Amino acid sequence: MVLTSALGLQLAISHGELGYWWQWLEVALVGAVAWLCARYMAPSDPIRDKRVMGLLLAVVAGHFVMEQVLYQTMPRAGQLFEGQMSLSLRNLMIASLAFRAEKRIANLATLTSLALMAVSVFMSVYWSVTICGIVYAVLGVGYLVTSYWERISGRFPEGTKSEIPRGAVGLAFCLAVFLAAAAIGIAGTNHATRALAGFMPSSGGNQISDSRSQGGVGDGDDLVQGTKDAMSFGPTESEVFLESKMPSLFDVFNDTYDAPIVKKTARQKAVSLPRSEMEHRHSRVATTKSKGNDFSLLRKNEARRQKSLDDKKSPALFYVKGRVPLHLRTTIYDHFDGVNLQAAESHQEPPIKLIKENGVPWYHVSCPLSDEHIHSTEEHLLKFINLKTDRIPAPARLARFQIKDVDREEMFGLATDGHPRITVDFIPQLTVMRVQSSLVSSPTLLGDYATSKFRQSISVPDHEASIASIRELAHEWTSDLPPGWQQIAAVRDRLRSEYKSAPNSQLSEEVEFPVESFLLETKQGPDYLFATATSLLLRELGYSSRVVSGFYADPQNFDVGTWQTPVFKDNVHFWVEVSWDGKVWHPVEPTPGYELLAPRLTPWQRLHAVCLAAGKWCVSNWIPLSIGAVLMVAVCALFKRLADVVLRLANRYVRFGSERNRVLWTAKLMQWRARLQGRRRPQGQTFTKWIQECSQPISPEFIAATNWALYSPTLSCPLSHAEIGRVCDEAFTTLVHSPSLKNPASSSKELL
């Protein structure tokens, strides 16, 4: 019951997840310390033992101290007051398990587990916590039945066989778990209600709030009235007007990458990235008239030098709630003239459709992937704070999105490049949007279906529309690989391993073709050079590819207090997408330091990944591991000798003031040394009798000093201070030099 309650509480405070490793480390440390204290203290009456009570109070107070340390170092990493109180009671509950032989302490652990399990179920809406609650209820019923059975077992007539019906109890437990799982499976996991939402002020009440609060009133962070902080409330009933100037999407990219260099001479090279839009290399690609839809690879370096550290404290453009890292696309570039990335002026994407599910409006985007090829569906919440754009930041393979209570189909459409957009000037501030996307695993992309699709879509460009140096490099990197995702991954991995990401590096204005210079000469540059080079390399191999730009939700910015990731100006990013049919585009991340969102792993996959990572780490660090293993073997082989040296030094140099403490310290060290040799002093046997039986003859002076220290608190010491030190050293040396610790029981048998 205690362990189930601890698991349920952890799931509740971690939003249905297992939480962080240090939280479980705290549980393990509390349990280990309590178990060691219970074993070596061996209190006869724990409820009256001050050491036991001090331990239980220490584990409670220790968590509050740890929370204050977390709050000072990472202000949003700790828990609210009720969370701190719950976790402190959890520590008390875990520590009480070590002293469960005392009935009153066992009852304390049981009642604490009941309270924490109730709080976990009432304060959460996660099915995993509900399962823990059901399991706890069944265990609780079993506990009550067992307690009652033990209480009446002595009242049966003599000769009556009485035992707990374990089979029936086990069957009832399994049946209860099965029925609970079936009920949750039928009703779904989204129909749970939060019974105590808003009950505690720091969890989202309507009077007091906290920066680490995890809930809100009604629609939570969507619709909360504010009076002081303009960034803390939703879009309704607001008394505060935002006075800060919102940057547009175009401004964000220019602020991050600096303004483009305007060349007086026109560029003549042009390469069309997608297969369906191929053009002659020496033809001029028409530029779009929409400002911000083209991007030059040649950038100025003035604004970056002028930026101060205060610029990095600007408010977030928007927030992402959900798993990260996450790539959010805003612009699609499918033409390249040698220097400028340019967006298309037309597209063939089907329109966005409004579909209501259970009265909830969803805007569906075409993503023609069958269920067998989709690993899972991922959902994220986007809260727009300080970004002025009509483009919807969309994850790869966007399936659908919604804004609560917005059910007008004309509110959304597709931009000229086929990217989803809102039909007003820009997305209103503090709008909360829910987006769902499909995740595809690497084995699926490496499978037969994807491989055959990629092979069918390959269309190698002719020599006139190709670039010889890039074509040769692409074939060199993939010459020994079959067509398909293996070649795409090879190009990606080659760039990630052999090229360096340098966001601040800039190409010279005299560079004729930036991508050639990046691939063959500098081998370092910003992310837009990695993306453009990858797209051209894949294009030379015949794959349909395009460069996209948007935002990267960095896991390093993840806020554990709110479970949200702020996205700043510095998080703009470029990457690549490839497709086999021009409809479903799969992301490719060639820039080192950036990662794609991977599908959730099953427990076996996690175990396999951990074992694989541990194996790789061991192989890469085999020299220090070998040295450590040799040292560990040596320590194990010489453990008793090393222990004798340490204990002898402790006996000689550690002082506790009075003669009585000196004698008792030596006696304690002698018992520890005997315990290492496998001879524990039996309960009820005096120390002097025990030490005389399991060692060579001890000096009478030490025996007398020990009896005085143990049994004569009012008498003066029979030896002087100098003699006490000498006698204790000689006694401990005699014990160490004994050939072996004799067992009194075996000695008695030999005499018989």
Automatic annotation (TrEMBL):
Residues 519-592 form the Transglutaminase-like domain. It comes from the Bacteria. This is Transglutaminase domain-containing protein. SMART domains: TGc (SM00460). The keyword Lipid metabolism does not apply. Keywords: Membrane, Transmembrane, Transmembrane helix. Residues 272-295 are annotated as: Disordered. The chain crosses the membrane at residues 20-40, 52-71, 133-149, 169-188. It comes from Bremerella cremea. Coiled coil: none annotated. The keyword Secreted does not apply.
